[in-house]
Design a protein that fits this description.
Blueprint lengths: L1 H35 L8 H13 L3 H19 L2 H24 L16 H21 L7 H11 L4 H14 L1 H5 L2 H22 L5 E8 L2 H11 L5 E6 L6 E10 L3 H11 L4 E7 L13
Antiparallel strand pairs: 1-3, 1-4, 2-3
Helix pairs in contact: 1-4, 1-5, 2-7, 3-4, 5-9, 6-7, 7-9, 10-11
Length: 299
């Protein structure tokens, strides 16, 4: 009977995650199609890079994202494993579909993207588009999802170099926005691009309570081996195990300590719930984590 309950819970969690990922990707695509693309505003990320390609050539953003991610996913399958690849593959297909639908809905009979806020409303379009982008990606991150693109590149870099996800993504974002100047010689695009990036990041952080923060878990459990094995096998992190004793009951208990990225917190909680529902868990923010898999120690 317990196995059936766990199975139902996993199915329900899968359905909720599936709906949340689609809502997030649809929100993100709406921000691009309704506000950023019609006003020739770009930002970081692979979508921003292919938005520049769209402005120059007219080649649809959705097709460019699909082609580029297909190549990156082959490297992800080779280097990062099939679980990451399958989940990211769906997100890539869904994002490409939503972007294509959004562009088609926002295109008038003459083939031009409609400026629904009216002409000269670049600032408002920049803010609204960035907010929708941040909220959309935030929803995806809360479910442990990924939209591919820079996420795949950052994951590959993080695997072989001591460079954090956030630092790699930030460098790529700045590079994409700066490329607007030599291509268009338009200071406006560069300025609006950086403003969009700031608003987008702020909206994302507000939703997921700072996506780049790390989380420390202290777990008191009698099923330490099972929990440790799951954390080690299903994440890129390890666990420290210590012997403990309940002062009131004088019963032996294991105390586990692990630090993970913010986006992995929900996954860790689900592991604990499925393995030992009676475990006592403390979760707290870790401000500044240094070592393997995190930030380098710099004097």
């Amino acid at each position: 009977m317990p196995k059936i309950q766990v199975s139902y819970r996993r199915v329900w969690e899968f359905v909720v995650d599936f709906l949340a990922i689609n809502i997030g990707l649809a929100t993100y695509s709406l921000g691009w199609a309704a506000f950023l693309l019609p006003y020739h505003i770009t930002t970081g990320g692979m979508t921003g890079m292919f938005a520049i390609v769209y402005y120059v050539t007219g080649f649809p953003v959705s097709y460019a994202i699909l082609i580029a991610n297909s190549i990156l996913l082959l490297f992800a399958l080779w280097q990062l494993g099939w679980k990451f690849t399958i989940k990211t593959s769906y997100a890539v297909l869904a994002l490409s579909t939503y972007l294509q639908l959004g562009q088609e809905l926002m295109t008038d009979d003459a083939g031009n993207l409609m400026q629904i806020l009216g002409e000269g409303q670049d600032s408002m379009a920049c803010v609204l588009g960035a907010i929708l982008n941040g909220l959309g990606i935030g929803i995806v991150f809360l479910t442990g999802g990924s939209t591919g693109g820079w996420d795949i590149i950052a994951a590959l870099v993080n695997k072989y170099r001591n460079i954090s996800f956030g630092r790699a993504l930030l460098f790529l974002d700045f590079l994409v926005i700066a490329s607007c100047w030599p291509i268009f010689h338009d200071v406006r695009m560069v300025v609006f691009g950086y403003v969009t990036l700031v608003v987008y990041t702020y909206a994302l952080d507000m939703l997921v309570n700072s996506a780049r923060q790390d989380i420390q878990f202290i777990i008191f459990t009698r099923k330490a081996d099972d929990i440790c094995q799951r954390i080690i096998s299903e994440t890129c992190h390890s666990v420290t195990s210590m012997d403990g004793e309940g002062f009131y009951s004088h019963q032996d208990i294991k105390v586990l300590i692990t630090i993970v990225h913010k986006r992995e917190a929900v996954k860790i909680l689900r592991m604990i719930q499925e393995t030992d529902p009676a475990a006592f868990v403390s979760q707290s923010r870790a401000e500044g984590v240094y070592g393997n898999g995190f930030n380098a120690i710099k004097p």
